[in-house]
Design a protein that fits this description.
- The chain is about 40% helix and about 25% strand.
- By secondary structure, it is α/β, with parallel strands linked by helices.
- It has 2 domains: about 120 residues, 3-Layer(aba) Sandwich (Rossmann fold); about 100 residues, Winged helix-like DNA-binding domain superfamily/Winged helix DNA-binding domain (Arc Repressor Mutant, subunit A), CATH 1.10.10.
- It has a 5-stranded parallel β-sheet, with helices on both faces. Strands 6-7-8-9 form a 4-stranded antiparallel β-sheet, covered by helices on one side. Strands 10-12-11 form a 3-stranded antiparallel β-sheet.
- A hairpin with a 4-residue loop joins β7 and β8.
- The longest helix is centred in the last third of the chain and has 15 residues.
- The mean pLDDT is about 85.
């Protein structure tokens, strides 16, 4: 699971990220509303920790935009604003929890875990392409009626391809989806995942093809019964 930390104080954001890492949660840190909006275009986050005092926009405006754009991941407001009116406004605008500074990191992690355990609208989505059906809640892939065992990374690659079926997905978009904004990976990591995915789909007689768009990225198309191409 990857968490987006939206916090204008980078030192404080680093401390939060370090504590989340100790709890087994990956995270990306941004310091402005603009950077948060850009991150949400490319990365699928499990939750957002949102400060309200951002340098370029009020956090409440960003929260409103997040919900208006259809993002349904849990949002926890983490702010120095203590007033009841601020808490009520945040909850009315779509926040799932509100934590006023200062607080203990243990409380933050505990409340974040509680949010992540809640069933949400992002869960239970069934994505389909050709004879594939991918359950994004249970992380299960079926080809026809057969359940296929796959590694987590290949499932993440497949999910992004299905969501963009018929459109080219750039390598940068894949890397941000898989690894977040601040993690550097070996140059051939994505190619390894795609190679493994193609083999699983070909062996299972999947009716989709994954095309390599040289120098750009990958594209999935339905193939009317043909095997997945390399």
């Amino acid at each position: 699971m990857r968490i987006l930390i939206v916090e204008d104080n980078s030192t404080y954001g680093h401390l939060v990220a370090q504590r989340l890492a100790q709890a087994g949660l990956d995270s990306d840190e941004v310091t402005s509303a603009r950077a948060a909006r850009r991150a949400l275009l490319t990365v699928r986050y499990a939750a957002i920790l949102l400060d309200l005092g951002l340098p370029d926009d009020d956090g409440i405006v960003l929260l409103r935009d997040i919900r208006s754009a259809g993002h349904t991941m849990p949002v926890m407001i983490v702010t120095a604003r203590h007033g009841l009116e601020h808490r009520l406004q945040g909850l009315r605008e779509g926040a799932d929890d509100y934590l006023a500074k200062p607080f203990s990191m243990e409380e933050l992690v505990a409340r974040l875990h509680a949010l992540l355990r809640r069933p949400g609208q992002l869960l239970g989505q069934l994505l389909t392409a050709g004879n594939l059906s991918l359950d994004t809640d249970n992380h299960q892939l079926k080809v026809g009626d057969s359940l296929q065992l796959m590694r987590a990374r290949e499932l993440e690659v497949l999910e992004l391809l299905i969501r963009n079926k018929g459109r080219v997905v750039t390598r940068q978009r894949f890397e941000e989806w898989l690894f977040g904004l601040q993690v550097e990976q070996e140059n051939n990591a994505l190619d390894v995942y795609v190679h493994r995915l193609r083999k699983v789909l070909a062996d299972a007689k999947a009716t989709v093809k994954i095309h390599t768009i040289r120098g750009v990225g990958f594209l999935m198309s339905e193939s009317n019964g043909d095997r997945c191409a390399s």
